[in-house]
Specification:
By secondary structure, the protein is mostly helical. The protein has a two-stranded antiparallel ribbon with strand order 1-2.
């Protein structure tokens, strides 16, 4: 299966927003308060969008093989996480995650434990989530899809702070999701003790 540029842009936005919701949920559970985890303007975490686009382009032809999908997903996402972490540290002088205390880490940017977790996540998303996302994108008329794409891309990358509609739609949804997860799972990070909990989710000062 091949994807058009338009479809890849849609996937980028969708997974950037889903990644933001995921980060906000984790942070809300860990801190007990809402923290905007977006690095750019609006409810987006572009590293998730870039990561999924890279995975889709590189691994879709190999998606029939679960071992290849797992290994490829772990390697690609870890490479992206390493590059993004290094850029944030060296260029923007901030760290949004730190694996320094986790065994088998590389500069605190990546570690074996979470690289394996990313591999599992890639398999789960490619097999369970992406088919539904692709069907949704193809079901939306192209003109409407372009209109829906314009606002988050402009807001995130052009620095326009017209966040009213986006925040009104996504912030309550993310907070509600996080609150529900916290209520249902309670000690969520502790229950994932096999992964050693989660690394700090707030920006870390130098």
């Amino acid at each position: 299966m091949t994807y058009t540029i338009y479809e890849l842009l849609c996937f980028f936005v969708i997974y950037s927003v889903l990644g933001w919701c995921l980060e906000v949920c984790f942070c809300t559970i860990n801190t007990g308060q809402f923290v905007n985890r977006g690095f750019l303007n609006g409810p987006v975490c572009p590293i998730y969008g870039f990561g999924m686009v890279i995975v889709l382009v590189a691994l879709t032809p190999l998606a029939h093989s679960l071992p290849v999908l797992f290994v490829g997903g772990a390697l690609l996402t870890s490479a992206l996480e390493l590059a993004a972490g290094w850029i944030l540290k060296k260029v923007f002088h901030t760290s949004w995650w730190d694996y320094s205390d986790v065994p088998f880490n590389l500069g605190g940017y990546i570690c074996l434990k979470f690289s394996l977790a990313w591999g599992v996540a890639v398999v789960a998303v490619m097999k369970g989530v992406q088919p539904a996302v692709a069907a949704l994108v193809r079901a939306v008329p192209r003109t409407l899809g372009i209109v829906l794409l314009y606002s988050p891309l402009e807001q995130a990358f052009l620095g326009r702070r017209r966040q009213g509609l986006a925040i009104a739609l996504w912030k309550p949804a993310a907070v509600s999701l996080a609150a529900t997860a916290a209520a249902l799972l309670g000690t969520f990070p502790v229950q994932l003790a096999g992964f050693g909990g989660f690394p700090p989710l707030l920006p870390l000062a130098n």
